[in-house]
Amino acid sequence: MGGGWLSRWPVIRQLKGEDGRGQAARSARTDALRPRVEGAETVARSVCPYCAVGCGQLVYVKDGKVTQIEGDPDSPISRGRLCPKGSASKQLVTHPGRQTKILYRRPYGTEWEPLDLETAMDMIADRVVRTRRETWQQTHEGQEVRRTLGIAGLGGATLDNEENYLMKKLYTALGAIQVENQARI
Amino acid sequence: MAECHPVGYQWVMEARARGAKVFHIDPRFSRTSATVDRYLAIRAGTDIVLLGALINYVLSNGLDFREYVLAYTNAATLVNKDFRDTEDLDGLFSGYDEETGRYDPSSWAYEGDVPEEEEQTEGGRRHAEAAGSDSYGARGAGASATPPADPTLTDPRCVYQILKRHYSRYTPEMVEELCGIPPERFHELAEAITANSGRERTTAWVYSVGWTQHSVGVQYIRAAAILQLLLGNMGRPGGGIMALRGHASIQGSTDIPTLFNLLPGYIAMPHAHRHDGLDHYLEREGADTGWWGNRRAYVVSLLKAWWGDAATEANDYCFDYLPRLTGDHGHYATVMGQIDGTVKGYFVVGENPAVGSANGKAQRLGLANLDWLVVRDLMLVETATFWKDAPEIETGELRTEEIGTEVFFMPAASHVEKEGTFTNTQRLLQWREKALDPPDDCRSDLWFFYHLGKRIRQRLGDDEIDRPVKELTWDYPEIGEQRDPDAEAVLREINGRAADGRLLASLRELKPDGSTSCGCWIYCGVYADGVNMAARRTPHTEQGPVALEWGWAWPANRRILYNRASADPQGRPWSERKKYVYWDGTKWTGPDVPDFEEDKAPDYVPPEGAKAQDALGGTDPFIMQSDGRGWLYVPSGLSDGPLPTHYEPHESPVRNALYAQQANPARRTIDRPENPYNPALSPRFPYVYTTSRLTEHHTTGAMSRPLPYLAELQPEAFCEVSPDMAEELGLENGDWATIVTARTAIELRVLVTGRVRPLRLNGRTVHQVIMPYHWGYSSGGVITGDVVNDLPSIVLDPNVYIQESKAGTCDVLPGRRPRGTALLDLVERYRHG
After folding, report:
1. Interface touch B350/A78, C-beta < 8 Å
2. Nearest CB to A159: which of B264, B407, B445?
3. B613 with B680, same domain?
């Protein structure tokens, strides 16, 4: 394409061209644009974490960061499509408001405090063991029950099957029966 | 569906483009309503009137699919002569006890079935208290395999005739009076669904929590089941009743439940007063005929998966290691236990009850009375921050310095930072690959509970009560620097193994003698032959429409349940157009996995005394039922009646025009000061409200409010009202309104649209207020708003203890709500005014 700067101006070319969205719309900048997924080092086949339709997702990773999440065109369920939430799910895993550090609030405390992972896990294990022992019920109304009503759990319905399985298994072995899920609600 | 399951809705649009007629019945006009052939506005809480009238229309015009109904349902079965219907008792069934508010269901049984002592039967008092009917997620209740029947359908005690009488008063006039749907619209719907059912065509129903979150929620679904069975729409392509579930693995969370009354695979938790040892338990939990007749194999294999070599025949496979229920230990009972101080420690994992559960204030008062609380989530949800920013802090009901709850916030891994399976709304398991490690302290829930379990085990001594934990199989390979337990190893345990360690290929291999282990019998086969079937990803372009090679559906990778019913009694397709699974002369075949044993011929007649699947004949498609039939009438198992019956919501401004009985007589109320109710028919609370969702947000907003894209698309909490109601109350579009119930008052922006239609009921106008519930007070979200779920009371369906959050009453005032103690004063005036 020859001519002066005016004739190279995309607006003029789009007005003059037969197809204003094709060649006429090209510029040095658009020529330099690359797909976000092009430089990805790995692609994981995943599933959208919002509703229960189960749309396929492709998760693109570069330099240890999620660079894009797109619909999986192979999925017979979604055929590559995602809704506004699924389309925004890269923000779900990368947004700056995501809390990535443990926070601890002591009884009657007015502020959060930091805590390291090992300490927190030990503290929680101590509390489970102590509360279980303090609230153990061997019998109830003359019947053997072997349980504690002192420890309860409530899980969300974005838990994996494997997670729910280990949770139910551990709670039940501990004798904790008040184990509930969004599935009730 | 377009609003909350948008990508699934593409298939509805595609069907419509190919000529399907689509109706949308909802109190709220949504993106679905905008794209269908006909939208019917309905008063929240009245769907059984509509469904009952459709059943009546089918029966009184002889439009049922008679051959299907006779062969595949219990229409001909005779019912106990002591049974009395709501027709006889003005809205009650026989067996009701005024004092306890409960039914003795023994008179509902099939003729000749002798029930056990009343309070022990399935559906009886003990069973009902522990929400026993939840266990029907994969099977029917126990009843006779071959009850007496009248194939002419004329005996007044046969199910067909009982049904006819029961629904005779559900007329188009009643639909107009209670639902607000005019007769011509009703007839259009009735004609469409009947014309579109039969040999050549099928009709599907799709529902969501708009049907379940009611004090008669289970019976809503039952009503749809009756209609679909009468029209021959079950087990056939294009038919069915589709539950659209709202969360990525909410189906999985029921199949492998973190629910108080269930073990994996809908196996009931043992009850101290109903079950002694394993034998007694198995005797009491269902029938010996149909596939559930193999339950000893399912239960013993689960116990072997959990306690391995410690589980032996001599010790009942450690059956006594299972803690016992004694009643209701559900979510809301637990919250009351927190307020009372019996519940000391609470794990909240990817859940936000401070915003998501009914009566948010009761939830937060419970949280504030704990010794310790562990919250695991991606962001600081309201359940974690209640001690500093709950509405009760502002009103002075709680003071931060006086809340003794110790709170651990443990950041979670996102769905791309861990591997594992979700089970979608159609029972399809899909494996997710891990894309990368979670950042900082974030860990998966699998990691958390596995490592917590290890630490707990290290701390236990030799006490007898510690044996179930110490002997638990709890040894999974650890992967990578973060020592993640191997999720595939867990899935393999769920799948199950033979004694030699071989991974089982099918639940048919499960044994009752302790030689197999299996963590969830309905998932057996997901790792068949050592292949992670849930991870299969054959593109849809390279396989047929049933797509059997994408993921894996329970049971047995079957995509349409009860698909034997897609063929006629002789095993031939009902029509060429609706051909699916059929008998080719020697075996069952078709594009799906047949649910019959491959070689069980259509003319198979069970020998005398046959058990389990062998007891079902060649024309009994409902293989998880004791009699192989679809149950129009439910002779046992339910706690509020064998037939769906319309009762008004607990809080309703309208009198029940069908019976003297106003609300479900068996509903569960919690009569405590933390949970005051609006009186029924109260002029102080004249408006009907319902809660809803928006495409751009997800449940309590924890996974959507922090996302700038989504926050910008739907920034503010609002209530949607009609122009008439706005004018009546002086509400301005874009301005504020205060919504009041006996629980509290909240403020929302007002959206005035013609999409909300005032309903004319018998000359009277009823206004409805529609409120999406995605907002909360936490600064973890980019956007905040008042908590809509603070408005509903805790009143529960008596079968499964789901709360009635989809229909209640309220008052609406223009302007913002009062602050501080003035808010409490306002609510107090409403309670006693």
Report:
1. no
2. B445
3. no
Q: Do B176 and B42 sit in the same domain of this protein? A: yes
Of B317, B231, B820, B825, the closest CA to residue B565 belongs to B231
Cα angle: B253, vertex B254, B256; to 5 degrees: 70
- pLDDT tens per residue across span B425-471: 999 999 999 999 999 999 999 999 999 999 999 999 899 999 999 99
Q: What is the DSSP letter of B36?
A: S
> Is B336 domain-assigned?
no
Alpha-helical runs (H) found in B419-564: 445-459, 467-470, 487-495
The residue type at A19? D
Structure tokens at B733: 């579009």
For residues B117 and B42, membership in a common domain is answered with yes
Q: Shortest CB distance from B491 goes to which of A47, A162, A172?
A: A162
Which of B345, B356, B453 is the closest to A127 by Cβ?
B345
Q: Is residue B690 part of a domain?
A: yes
Residues in CB range of A2: below 8 A, 6 or more apart: none
Whether residues B101 and B25 fall in one domain? yes
List, for residues B353-399, the tens digit of each pLDDT value.
Answer: 999 999 999 999 999 999 999 999 999 999 999 999 999 999 999 99
pLDDT tens digits, one per residue of B42-76: 999 999 999 999 999 999 999 999 999 999 999 99
Q: What is the ipTM of this complex?
A: 0.97
Count of domains observed in chain B: 3
Residues of chain B numbered 440-459 and touching chain A (CB < 8 Å): 440-446, 449-453, 455-456, 458-459
Q: Does residue B156 lie within any of the structural domains?
A: yes
Q: Look up residue B180 and give its two tokens.
A: 């607000």
The mean pLDDT of A63-83, rounded to a whole number, is: 97
- Over residues B763-822, the pLDDT tens digits come to 899 999 999 999 999 867 689 999 999 999 999 999 999 999 999 999 999 999 999 999
Domain extent, residue B789, equals 668-832
Which CATH fold would you assign to the domain A42-94? N-terminal domain of TfIIb (2.20.25)
Q: Which amino acid is at B339?
A: I
Are A53 and B436 a contacting pair at CB < 8 A? no
- For range B521-541, the mean pLDDT: 97
Determine whether the interchain pair B334/A69 forms a contact, defined as Cβ–Cβ distance below 8 Å: no
| Among chain A residues, CA nearest to B468 | A173
Question: Which residue in B323, B331, B696 is closest to A185 by CB distance?
Answer: B331
A114 to chain B, minimum CA–CA distance in Å? 10
Residues of A whose CB is below 8 A from B557? none
